[in-house]
Amino acid sequence: MELTHHLMVPKAEIERRYQNIRQAMRHENIDALIVCGNQYSGFEGGVRYVSDFEIVHRYVDVLIPLDGEPTLIFPSEAKWIGDKSKTWVRDHVWADVPGLWLRQRAEAQHWKRLGVYGMNFIMPVRDYRALEGGPYELVPFDVQFDMARAVKSEFELAAIRRTMDIIVDGFWILVRDYAPGKTEAEVMAPAVGLFFARGAGPRMMNIVLSGTGGEAEAHFKVPGARVVHADDLLLYSLEITGPEGYWVEFSRALIQGKPSARTQKMADAYPEALEAARLCMREGEKISAVHHAAAEIFARHGFGLGHLSGHSIGETMIEYPAIGARTDFELRENMVFSFHPQVVDQDGKVCLYTQDMYRIGKKAGECLADIPWKFYNGRERPGKPA
Q1: Do residues 280 and 321 make contact, with C-beta atoms less than 8 angstroms apart?
Q2: Do 46 and 59 touch, CB atoms closer than 8 A?
Q3: pLDDT for 347
Q4: What is the model's pLDDT at position 385?
Q5: Mean of per-residue pLDDT scores for the chain
Q6: H-type alpha helices, 83-230
Q7: Are strands 32-38 and 59-65 parallel, antiparallel or unpaired?
Q8: pLDDT at 3 over 50
Q9: Residue range 131-155, pLDDT digits in tens
């Protein structure tokens, strides 16, 4: 029986992706590109972007020559893992050591420069060892690949918006089921159940910042067996994909009691900082301006920022470019970013956090979730603030 793929990527979208990637390859004199992906959450998306193959376990590579058809290379131990009927790439290879197969193909084709997306974080050591020392140059290609896919098409934007609907629905379940006396894991669990039911599968990373006395400690952790009290501050970072594989991220603060004076001071800076950053999210603006717009306001209130204030996002969780103080790439309309400034105190021990998705516009950014930034107490409902 023939199966149909209800999330079929249109032919024009496939051609657009390959055209942009090959343009970047020509610019760098790349003869062929290896796109690596593995099961680790957030590292699977490059493969799906260029093949629509959904990694279920282990890892997969896609070889894209400058001219000619692409090839999916699977490790032989993954023969029966993953639905190969869903991919548009029809040339499939099962290799004992994919890196050795890739080396032999490169040598046979007399390629001189071999680009690799994922060489630093994704490619297995055994494959890199098989590839290194060959009669070609291995060229890291992460930045070039991500920049080639940074501007999202209408097809992609629609998929991202559908996933935003899922994560927002999950957030309201989180609010509904939040109550002191439950564990951090029990508060999170119903939202995760909805995410899985709506197509996220294993592609989730739902973590939390939390603490007592109206404050949250400045390190992320997996929600566990710690019992929540009324004055605990909970900052759940919801990070999922929808069935099309596009990542979205969202976070708001939960507390039934009273935030500490220090937390409240952090909160007072957020609305102005978020709006200042949004107004900088426009065509032609340098990305560093977005970071500085928020950072300067937080600094005026006496606080700094923790990790990067945001990053491009798509079928890979973290794509280039980042939103940082030294990022000089220019923004282009329909880039999509996760913006998540983590405000920390002078000692780096206490924080406040938020997370939103933005589409870069011609004149200002568009926030993709219409959920006000505030402290939520569990009594709010969609359209009916407590």
Answers
A1: no
A2: no
A3: 84
A4: 58
A5: 94
A6: 98-109, 125-131, 142-148, 154-177, 184-197
A7: antiparallel
A8: no
A9: 999 999 999 999 999 999 999 999 9
- Cβ neighbours, 10 Å, residue 364: 16
pLDDT score, position 266: 94
Give Cα separations from 169 to 165, 194, 367, 379 (angstroms).
6, 8, 16, 15
113: which 2 tokens? 């420069």
Give residue-wise pLDDT tens across range 192-243: 999 999 999 999 999 999 999 999 999 999 999 999 999 999 999 999 999 9
Cα torsion through 64, 65, 66, 69, rounded to 10: -80
* pLDDT (tens digit per residue) in 162-194: 999 999 999 999 999 999 999 999 999 999 999
Query: Could you tell me which residues come within 8 angstroms of residue 43 by beta carbon, excluding any fewer than 6 positions away?
Result: 37, 118, 121, 122, 316, 317
How far, in Å, CA of 385 to CA of 368, rounded?
Answer: 19
Look at residue 4 in the predicted model and tell me its pLDDT: 37
Asked if 244 and 314 touch (Cβ cutoff 8 Å), the reply is: no
Could you tell me the domains of the chain?
11-148 (3.40.350.10), 154-376 (3.90.230.10)
CB-based burial label for 105 (10 Å; 0-12, 13-18, 19+):
middle
Q: What percent of the chain has pLDDT over 70?
A: 97
Both tokens assigned to 314: 């798509």
Q: Above 60 in pLDDT, residue 81? A: yes
- CA nearest to 185, candidates 234, 226, 230, 238: 226
Q: How far is CA 60 from CA 22, 44, 56, 110, 361, in A?
A: 20, 9, 10, 23, 35
Q: Which of 105, 6, 127 is nearest to 58 (CA)?
A: 127
Q: Is the peptide bond before 321 cis (omega within 30 degrees of 0)?
A: yes
Report the DSSP pairing between strands 137-140 and 113-117. parallel
CB atoms near residue 220 (< 10 Å): 17
